[in-house]
């Protein structure tokens, strides 16, 4: 079992390296970047090795599904905080910080929410939901993915938003309402717009980066707080990384005084050749290229993977391989052994990369 000393080791290393980096010398090490993972509640409850890995490797914990409407609001009037409370308590007991995922999404909604029909109903439910959830974890969940995946897959000029129940009933203002309500409820929370497909070398990704910037600029112009953009970073091994595009994106974020976070990192290896060792090397190289592009231009506030071990990942079902081999998307293998990807991530965590 992990000891309290082990649990604190990562945090202590961060403080020490942070102090060195802040010394101002030209040769100072780069700032360490807190590392974390999403945690899935059923796995967390049943697998002690999962809990041990979260304790050992993470500075940040993200409840993977338990803060979604589907989990919290299955029964419309009664909030069920059981799963979220358990993960928050674990994070606090082990001195990890927390990211909240997510206050508004077009998916993972309970049936009643998908059946809302009026603008007034949608606004009332959204505001009420955000007030209750953010207030419950005020001062404890430091960062919120306020909106998740609101950008259309292939946005065209004048049509930036994904078709969701929120967009249908509230129009573009659904984003404003969510950020405004979260900021009012916990004025100290960091508020993030979270989305995917920013990194690929295709025109669609550039269009999505532009929309993300436009949304944040519009919020800021209206005086609505937004602090950063979350890049999910589900990296497709066969697609590659737009290094120049990402670096421009980081400069554009700087110009708007916005942070960046990596929020759901993993590698989709369904098109890679079968050899597991080779797949792991390719995945580590891809993560290294991606993080190198981002971090050399702007240090993210956190780097979070969508799970820790290949034993459990959404990638298995969503991107099955033709040869039926297990996907290898994460930093630990299915038996919790470190893979080359972990070394890349630990470099950023220690501040040596
Ligand atoms: O990994 C999550 C899976 O367990 C859930 O069933 C699913 C629906 O709630 O969400 C998955 O997580 C998604 C995240 O919330 C948003 N970005 C994409 C992630 C993978 O689908």
Summary?
This protein is of the alpha/beta class. The protein is built from 14 helices and eleven strands.
Key traits:
353 residues, TIM Barrel, two-stranded antiparallel ribbon, 46% helix, binds ligand 9MR
- The stretches of 5 or more residues where confidence is low (pLDDT under 50) are 1-25
Helicity level:
40-55%
- Tell me the fraction of residues in β-strands, as a range: 15-25%
Structural class: alpha/beta
Sketch the major β-sheet. Answer: 8 strands, parallel, barrel
Strand element count: 11
The string of secondary-structure elements, in order, is: HEHHEHHEHHEEEHHEHEEHEHEHH
Shape: globular
What is the CATH level 1 assignment?
Answer: Alpha Beta
The CATH superfamily turns out to be Glycosidases
**Tally of individual domains:** 1
> Which architecture would the CATH scheme give at its second level?
Alpha-Beta Barrel
Number of helices: 14
What binds here, in terms of ligands, is: ligand 9MR
Radius of gyration: 20 Å
Question: How far do the termini sit from each other?
Answer: 29 Å
Widest sheet, order of strands: 1-2-3-4-7-8-10-11
CATH topological fold name: TIM Barrel
Mean pLDDT: 93
């Amino acid at each position: 079992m992990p000891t309290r000393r082990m649990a604190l080791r990562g945090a202590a290393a961060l403080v020490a390296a942070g102090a060195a980096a802040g010394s101002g010398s030209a040769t100072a090490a780069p700032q360490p970047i807190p590392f974390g993972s999403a945690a899935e509640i059923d796995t967390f409850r049943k697998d002690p090795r999962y809990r041990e890995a979260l304790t050992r490797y993470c500075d940040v914990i993200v409840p993977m599904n338990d803060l979604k409407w589907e989990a919290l609001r299955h029964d419309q009037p009664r909030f069920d905080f059981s799963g979220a409370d358990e993960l928050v308590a674990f994070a606090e007991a082990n001195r990890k910080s927390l990211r909240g995922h997510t206050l508004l999404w077009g998916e993972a909604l309970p049936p009643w929410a998908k059946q809302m029909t009026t603008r007034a109903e949608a606004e009332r439910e959204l505001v009420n939901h955000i007030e209750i959830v953010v207030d419950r974890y005020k001062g404890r969940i430091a960062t919120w993915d306020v909106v998740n995946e609101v950008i259309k897959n292939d946005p065209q000029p004048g049509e930036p938003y994904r078709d969701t129940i929120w967009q249908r009933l509230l129009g573009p203002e659904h984003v404003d309402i969510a950020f405004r309500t979260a900021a009012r409820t916990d004025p100290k929370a960091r508020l993030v717009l979270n989305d995917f497909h920013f990194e690929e070398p295709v025109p669609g990704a550039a269009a999505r980066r532009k929309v993300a910037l436009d949304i944040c600029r519009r919020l800021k112009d209206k005086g609505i707080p937004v602090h950063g953009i979350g890049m999910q970073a589900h990296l497709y091994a066969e697609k590659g990384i737009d290094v120049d595009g990402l670096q421009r994106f980081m400069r554009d974020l700087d110009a708007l005084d916005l942070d960046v976070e990596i929020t759901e990192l993993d590698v989709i290896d369904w098109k890679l050749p079968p050899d597991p060792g080779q797949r792991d090397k390719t995945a580590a190289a891809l993560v290294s290229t991606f993080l190198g592009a981002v971090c050399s231009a702007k240090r993210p506030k956190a780097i979070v993977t969508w799970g820790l071990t290949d034993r459990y990942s959404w990638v298995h079902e969503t991107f099955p391989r033709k040869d039926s081999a297990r996907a290898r998307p994460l930093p630990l293998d299915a038996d919790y052994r470190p893979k080359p990807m972990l070394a890349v991530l630990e470099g950023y965590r220690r501040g040596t990369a």
